[in-house]
């Protein structure tokens, strides 16, 4: 059964009706009677008619690629492998930023990148993947979904302002109540210096006693750490395998989305890759830091990170094959959109919303973080909106 809701090329329409160009020339009346309903329906579609109008204005660019055209097999595989390779190289960038991880500039840049990831992932899901799930891409749909982005951003701003003011108010009140204590965030962990912790096996539930000096308590913890170090290989293996499996599954779905997107159009593929690249860089840096803290060397952490990234190639191959040979593309786009929204709204957005609550920053530092977060989110939104609004006018040279 013909999928008349798609804006198909002439060759694809002929293949759906088991016709050739010779049939149109030799048996014009019967061939036109067969294909005419599909042509009339596509003419009635605003997206198809708009695309035809744009083609009329750019007919002289014979070697350019327009968004509505179906990419060739070489373009799909070539651009797909190239983009996945570039994204996977981000998994190795952690080794180059290790010396900078303790610097303030690194943390500020990472704050901006996380905001950028939220903006691009949410924008890609709402403006590109979800419309392709329902196989519509009209300007009205784009602007309606842009209103969804605006709603998310407005409530994010409201929450951040409330947290900033409430945090400032709480800190001022606690400073007045606790004279002489400067680190409010660590207040609940502090004890008077003249009453050290002391541990004995036969004392109260808290394990406090006057019979054992503080030094012995520290030695006990050192001994415990040494015991953990003896079993370090098990601990390292567990953390490493968890990251390889979890991140590998994530990268596999990324590859599916990239493959299916490039099968639809080159512009859809590139917009999906931009969103994934913006999300992967801070994500991979975080995984790299976790692997280093678990006891792996820099080379081992790079190897584990890159191993999980290879799953993206598997997803790419399956996404391209499924996208080219079946009609399962909308389901892949729906799966990818769900993952993008979850990562952006359930994982990253709460993290950047709470980042200033974890430490008692000065007001100027908190405002700087707030501005960087907003700059990243708005940049991501802007990139996806521009790609979506001007997709008809963007040409990709083949």
Automatic annotation (TrEMBL):
GO terms for biological process, alphabetical: intracellular monoatomic cation homeostasis; zinc ion import across plasma membrane
Subcellular compartments: Membrane
Membrane topology: Multi-pass membrane protein
GO molecular function: monoatomic cation:bicarbonate symporter activity; zinc ion transmembrane transporter activity
InterPro entries: ZIP, ZIP_Transporter
Keywords on record: Membrane, Transmembrane, Transmembrane helix
Cellular component aspect of the GO annotation: plasma membrane
UniProt keyword annotation of Transmembrane helix present: yes
Regions that span the bilayer: 76-98, 110-130, 142-162, 303-325, 331-349, 369-390
Subcellular location, principal: membrane
Family assignment from sequence similarity: Belongs to the ZIP transporter (TC 2.A.5) family.
Protein name as catalogued: Zinc transporter ZIP14-like isoform X2
Gene transcribed to yield this protein: LOC110981117
């Amino acid at each position: 059964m013909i999928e008349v809701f798609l804006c198909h090329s002439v060759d694809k329409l002929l293949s759906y009706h088991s016709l050739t160009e010779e049939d149109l020339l030799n048996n014009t009346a019967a061939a036109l009677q067969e294909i005419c309903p599909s042509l009339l329906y596509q003419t009635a579609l605003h997206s198809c008619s708009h695309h035809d109008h744009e083609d009329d204005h750019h007919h002289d660019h014979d070697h350019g690629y327009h968004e509505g055209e179906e990419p060739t097999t070489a373009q799909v595989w070539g651009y797909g492998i190239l983009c996945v390779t570039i994204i996977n190289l981000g998994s190795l960038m952690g080794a180059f930023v290790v010396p900078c991880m303790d610097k303030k500039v690194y943390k500020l840049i990472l704050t901006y990148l996380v905001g950028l990831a939220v903006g691009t992932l949410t924008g890609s899901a709402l403006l590109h993947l979800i419309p392709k799930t329902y196989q519509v891409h009209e300007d009205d749909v784009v602007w309606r979904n842009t209103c969804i982005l605006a709603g998310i951003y407005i409530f994010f701003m409201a929450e951040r302002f409330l947290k900033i003011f409430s945090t400032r108010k709480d800190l001022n009140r606690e400073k007045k109540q606790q004279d002489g204590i400067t680190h409010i965030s660590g207040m609940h962990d502090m004890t008077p210096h003249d009453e050290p912790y002391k541990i004995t096996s036969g004392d109260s539930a808290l394990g406090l006693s006057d019979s054992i000096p503080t030094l012995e308590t520290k030695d006990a913890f050192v001994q415990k750490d040494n015991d953990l170090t003896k079993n370090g290989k098990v601990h390292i293996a567990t953390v490493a395998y968890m990251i390889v499996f979890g991140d590998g599954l994530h990268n596999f779905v990324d590859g599916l989305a990239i493959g299916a997107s490039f099968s639809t159009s080159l512009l859809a593929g590139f917009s999906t890759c931009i969103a994934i690249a913006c999300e992967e860089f801070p994500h991979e840096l975080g995984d790299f830091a976790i692997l280093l803290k678990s006891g792996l060397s820099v080379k081992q952490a790079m190897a584990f990170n890159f191993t999980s990234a290879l799953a993206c190639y598997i997803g790419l191959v399956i996404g391209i094959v499924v996208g080219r040979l079946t009609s399962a593309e909308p389901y892949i786009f729906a799966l990818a959109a769900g993952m993008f929204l979850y990562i952006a709204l359930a994982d990253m957005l709460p993290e950047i919303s709470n980042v200033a609550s974890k430490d008692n920053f000065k007001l100027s530092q908190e405002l700087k973080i707030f501005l960087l977060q907003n700059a990243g989110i708005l940049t991501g939104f802007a990139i996806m909106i521009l790609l979506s609004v001007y997709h008809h006018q963007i040409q990709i040279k083949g």
